[in-house]
Amino acid sequence: MSEVSLAQEFTKGLWKEIPPFRLVLGLCPTLAVTKAFETGFGMGLALTFVLVCSNILVSLGRKMIPAKVRVPCFIIIIATFVVIVELVMQAYTYPLFLKLGIFIPLIVVNCIVLGRAEAFASKQGIVASIADGLGMGIGFTLSLSVLGSIREIFGAGTWLGKAVFGASFQPFTFMVEAPGAFVCLGLMLGIMNLVGKK
Amino acid sequence: MRDIIRMIVVLAVLGALSGGGLAFVKKNTEAKIEYQQLKFVKGPAIQEIMEGCTNDPIVDRFKVQDGEVERSFYVGVFDGKANAVAYEAEGKGFGGVIGLMVGVNLETDELLGMGVTTHSETPGLGARAKDDPSFRAQFRGMSLTQPFKVKTDGGDVDAVSGATITSRGVCAGMSKSAEFYKKLKPQIIEKAAAFAN
Asked: Where are the alpha helices (DSSP H) in A61-172?
């Protein structure tokens, strides 16, 4: 592993393969918890933690884990970190935990986490796996924050709970409802494709 | 054969490590989580009952064994004396169990107030037992020694209009809470005194 490719492993998650816009995985939380900036950002951080930690352990154990039971092993590792995140969130950010609700335990089955463990960490060294996990996690956090911001600003007229428009603004509530999530994500995917083509 | 044993060993070791790690995290966050849940679920009701107290009733809490069940009491300090406690009670309403928070003045046995914490009553009707401040306010100052009954049953509690069953459930819960309060009072006073400052 040379220094150059390490930087690449990190930055690919930020633009070239940014989830979920490029790497269209993990759409369940993407659609469900981006009603507001705060929930999108919180979800992103939780996922980043799980992703980095599980990447480290999967990479560490890649020579010991028998190929036939690798997926159960990955799931045990991932589930452990998800429960840790759940407990820590309950202990320190209880209101956020209430808002994210079922989507925290659902990180266990998030395709990004299992996908990175299977496709990357189980084949690469620890340092590269950390870089990969961090890059993907931060990319996911950025994406969810952007989506959450757009939906919150237009759908509720607020950002982080503070009003951004004057009193005359009529909230476009469609944006914070479920169909708004699909439309918003679709537009973002389209824009990303358009930009990427050049 | 060797393969199978290896798989079993790896999975077992991984499972054991995971279990151990989680037990460690759980143990270290348990107290914190309990505090947060109290603060955000029961906290608002406790705070309303204990308005004007000089301590944090959620921190200053103790437990008393009542037969099979363990009951939590939240201490309110007023004028440097721990002379009020809030505790939980239950009534049976129209849609299920109604969770109540009851605040009592330990010296006079008078109610400081009551609040509804959890319920599954009809929104707009029974749910007003929680949302309507005037229903809750009438309990303030009542004595725990008298039975709680709605006016239609010969008592002096104004039922929430359209929600007599809910109101009856609340009253029954209050009466029941008075029973165990009386039974446990010596222990409550003894333990609450430790929180005076």
From this structure: 70-92, 94-100, 111-116, 126-156
